Amino acid sequence: MVQDIFAKDIKSAYGLFHEGILALALAERQGMRVDVTYINRQSERITRQIVGLETQFYFSKFFSDWKKSRKGKATKININSSSQLGEYLYGTLELKPTKLTATGKGSTDVEAITQLNIPELNKLLEAKKLKKLRDTYLAGFLREAVDGFIHPFFNLHLVRTFRGSSNSPNFQNVPKRDKVAMQTVRQALYPREGNQLLELDYEQLEVKIATCYHEDPNMLEFIRTGHDFHLDFTKEIFQIDAYDPKVHKVLRAATKNGFVFPEFYGDYYKNCATYMVSNWCNLPSVGIWKAGQGIEVGTEHVSDILLRGGIKSATSFERHLKEIEDDMWNNRFKVYAQWKERWWKQYQKQGYFLSKTGFLFKSVMTRNDAINYPVQGAAFHILLLALIHATKALEREGMKTRIVGQIHDAIVFDVYPPELKKVVRIMKCIMENDVRQIWKWINVPLKVDAELCPVDGSWAEKQDYKI
DNA sequence: GGAACTCGCCAC
DNA sequence: AAACGTGGCGAGTTCC
């Protein structure tokens, strides 16, 4: 049996999870402090906002027409219902969906609704967003709070890639990118009295771990020199010679999240082009673009930049992206591409593979699955190994600082301020050096970034902290 | 009245 | 040749 051949690997993988779950159980027991009074106050405030937005929506012509259209139906109108909205938009009104759901029905998500360009629906979208904050996050914290603490679970037995997960409440999806959502929710979470929250995360961990598998020399060079390859792609896609971070930051974000990462996960130019045009550039998907269209970039608009480079429609943007994709996989990251093929062929032949961390993957996988799983899993295992050693170090040193959570490539601490410097020093050593001593296959440098909150400050107040 | 499903959205 | 990876969770809906 395959299991017998890899007994040694599987045993060490088991050892990691055995020690890992003990360290995570301690973090669960510690828990994170919540401000129940704040949550109650905030929930009431959000409810008032929701009522205001919904009242405006109820007075709209759109709503009265929608309501009329449901005459004679068994269930009465419910503005929270995606299926009712979809029925009305794509059935009754016969609008053409810009996007379909997994089961082939017209989508009613933010992207699809926005493209329909029905201003009255904006109130509904705003209200839905607030409900998410109130009902998922704030209500979840309140429900799970015991004596002013939440104790999120950290599981190691639920994810097919052998990553971890969290629930009740989920500690790993607290709003971060949207500023208002971030503030509203994270202000509910606090350190222990007199303490401060510290978050240490690995920079570019998955990209680096993928490199440990494929060992592409160009990627290795980027990592060793700290070269920003997202910038190279930004310059190519938008044909910019002089990159000015102040002006072109939005284009770099669009490139990184709309092209480079999707390509790494196995997406291809057509999807990326559609997504970049509509979501990141806010440009029309049909017709010839005009000056002054799309997102603002400094003093001009994104269409001005693309037109200057001779890209004048979504169709020509797609052709352009195909060329960049070809160059990406045939030249720049050729060895990476070859590894993907080899890895996939090997899995097809054998029906299983082993991760760098000794985990045996033998389920039925698609091509993208087989390529992504071992990377995602092993990246998390580095974090878990660091977390185990951190837990032991805090215990050994008799420190008052605690680990309260884990977010895939990050550890969250509730720090006793006099120990801050020491914690950072020990952790930097564990995360960047010790794990590489233990796992020699990590042949790339690892780097830790830190974010710190003020003493007695909430999780919303975290700031970059140079270590 | 609960299980199972869909959809949408938050994180990495 | 094929076409974005992993979760948790709330609300609505359908089925038993």
Keyphrases for this structure?
3 domains, alpha+beta, 467 residues, globular, 56% helix, single chain, Taq DNA Polymerase, Chain T, domain 4, three-stranded antiparallel β-sheet, five-stranded antiparallel β-sheet, 14 strands, Alpha-Beta Plaits, DNA-binding
Textual characterization of the structure:
This protein is α+β, with helices and mostly antiparallel strands and 467 residues long. The chain folds into three domains: 2-31 and 163-206 and 376-465, Alpha-Beta Plaits; 39-137, Up-down Bundle (Taq DNA Polymerase, Chain T, domain 4), CATH 1.20.1060; 217-332, no CATH class. Helix content is 56%, strand content 10%. It has 18 helices and 14 strands. α12 (245-264) runs antiparallel to α13, α15 (314-332) crosses α16 (334-350) and α17 packs across α18 (420-438). It is globular and about 65 Å long. The protein starts with a helix and ends with a strand. The mean pLDDT is 95. It binds a DNA duplex (12 and 16 nucleotides) through α5, α7, β4, α12 and α13.
- Quote the distance from N terminus to C terminus: 48 Å
Major sheet, described briefly? 5 strands, antiparallel
How many domains, in number, for the residues?
Answer: 3
Q: Please report the number of helical segments.
A: 18
Shape: globular
**Beta content:** 5-15%
Give the strand order, joined by hyphens, for the main sheet. 11-12-6-13-14
CA radius of gyration is 25 Å
> For the record, what CATH class of the largest domain applies?
Alpha Beta
CATH architecture of the largest domain: 2-Layer Sandwich
Q: Strand pairing plus helix content: what structural class? A: alpha+beta
How many beta-strand segments? 14
Unreliable spans: none
Task: Give the CATH topology of the largest domain.
Answer: Alpha-Beta Plaits
